[in-house]
Amino acid sequence: MKSIELLVEAMLPRILLAREFELCATTEKTKGRVSYSYEIGFYLGGSGKLCVNGKEYAINYGDVRFTRPGTHLDSTPSYKCYTINFDFGENSTIYRNQILDNIPEYFNTTGELAKQFETVIKCFTSNEVHSKLRANAALMHIIYAVFDTFYSKKKYCDAVRRCIAYIEKNYADKVTLERLGEISGYSDLHTMRLFKHDTGRTPHEWLTEIRVNRAKELLSDGDKNIEEIASACGFGSESHFKILFKRITGITPGVYRKNARLI
């Protein structure tokens, strides 16, 4: 199973299947399977059970299942649910970012997401010109709502907050893991683990994003040339800046500046 990084701003889901599914009490236990795409399901109730990677859950109304590629699934009747299968361009690929990495595999809600699931299913089967766009928008709303509930309000631990404050203040200078370890009061390795656990990113990834975002500001509003911007944002060289900027944004700094000034 391949795993690649996916920028949050580049999350454009491709819905493969959206349907309402029912497993009646008279149906035998389903044959176990492995998911090859992302799946998110909303359960409308029942007396059945679901097994996710060997962990069993009793199904209740409002339960939501978030399944990543490579997950082993098995279920016992009866239950009814809405399911959406999707990916971000490639099947059998796990995409990694702060959003996707921090959504639980199974949890209960009060049912407020039901209408969004219904919208996705309705639009997926529609032939109207705007239906696929609306389906994707509803799916993104579901993903955002789930993440917002479980992670975005989480407070970082004191050690990670100190590291973030240091990075935001000193992004233009050389920021080392050793220095972050001194600030956090932990070993370098443990600091990186804490940072990854709380933010979903490594300190280097966090630093790079801050530098690129600052570079975007300077490219959009200012007369500094590319070399000066690279230096002001803490990049070691103009060439390194260009490589990282294009890797993260998909375009070169020059094209970004040109587009920004056309808006």
Any chance you could write out the topology, listing elements then pairs?
Blueprint: E1 2-5, E2 14-23, E3 33-34, E4 38-46, E5 49-52, E6 55-58, E7 63-67, E8 72-76, E9 79-87, E10 93-96, E11 106-108, H1 114-124, H2 131-152, H3 158-170, H4 177-184, H5 188-199, H6 203-220, H7 226-232, H8 238-249, H9 253-262
Parallel strand pairs: 1-10
Antiparallel strand pairs: 2-9, 3-8, 4-7, 4-9, 5-6, 5-8, 7-11
**Largest pleated sheet:** 5 strands, antiparallel
CATH top level label of the largest domain: Mainly Beta
Strand content: 15-25%
- The Rg value, from CA coordinates, equals 22 Å
Question: What would you give as the CATH superfamily of the largest domain?
Answer: Regulatory protein AraC
Average pLDDT over all residues: 89
Order of helices and strands: EEEEEEEEEEEHHHHHHHHH
Tell me the structural class: alpha+beta
Looking across the biggest beta sheet, what order are the strands in?
2-9-4-7-11
Q: Number of folding domains?
A: 2
With helices defined by DSSP (H or I, 4 residues minimum), what is the helix count?
9
Question: What is the global morphology?
Answer: globular
- Can you give the helix content as a percent range? 40-55%
The total beta strand count reads: 11
Per the CATH scheme, the topology name of the largest domain is Jelly Rolls
The CATH architecture assignment of the largest domain turns out to be Sandwich
Distance between the ends: 41 Å
Q: Uncertain regions: pLDDT < 50 for 5+ in a row?
A: none
